[in-house]
Structure formats: C-alpha cells, structure tokens
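Supplementary Note 3. Input sequence used for the single-chain structure prediction.
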Amino acid sequence: MIATPQIPLAIPDGRRALAQMYIDLTMAFHASIYPPGKVPSEPDCHLTLVAVAVMLGHAEGHPMNATEVASRVQMPRSSVLTRLNALIGYGLVERIEDRFYIERDHAANVPHRDQFELILSQAFAVLGPLLSKSDE
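The predicted structure, written as discrete structure tokens, is reproduced below.
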C-alpha cells in the first residue's frame, strides 16, 4: 500500500466553523424545501440558493422578482425562473404578481427551526470568542 502524503492545511478554527456551518445550513435549507418524504438523496444547491434568496427578500420586506433574485444569486435569469417554478411546484414559494414569497404556511411555521438554531449555536460557540478578540 502506498502512503498518501499529508498536506497540511492551516486554516483558523473560525474558518473551519464557518465552513461546517455553511454545509449544515445548506443541508437544512435543502431539507426544508421539499414536502415530507419527498427529499431527493442529492441536494440541489442552486435550488437551495434561490429558495434562500426568496426567503431573504420576503424577510427584508422587499420580495424580489426573478431578475432581482438572479442578480442576488448571480445566476442567469432563465435558470432562476426554472428553479422558482420548481419551488412553486414543491409548495415552498408562491408568486404574487411578479414577486416571489415564501408560501404562507412555511412563512408562519418555519420547518426545521430547531435544527437551524442548533447549527447556529454550535458555530457561534466557536466564532463568538474569535469575534470578541477582533474587538480588542
């Protein structure tokens, strides 16, 4: 058996915590897009990104149209429209006039809220002390 050389990667704890939080949040957002029992085995990160952009626009009080979503996620408008239509089909997003919103029941009852809170608390346990050091 040939030994694989170890290549050290010197990244700080905060960056590792952010990377883990990114993966965990992406997976949690992915799971919240689909109806129960319909979650595909392979995540569609672009679909998740579009869903999160719609959620942010809605939460910020500025629901976006397809062009604005495309600009926010830096994707072609046609790709965003395909994903927005898929999200509408899954029942996560609704279109009112030319703006996209999180569907009313999802907006009122955030799926997997406990999972999101756990992910954030774990990440901030590592990041909190690092952020307070940057204030010094």
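The beta strands are 93-96, 99-102. The mean pLDDT is 85.
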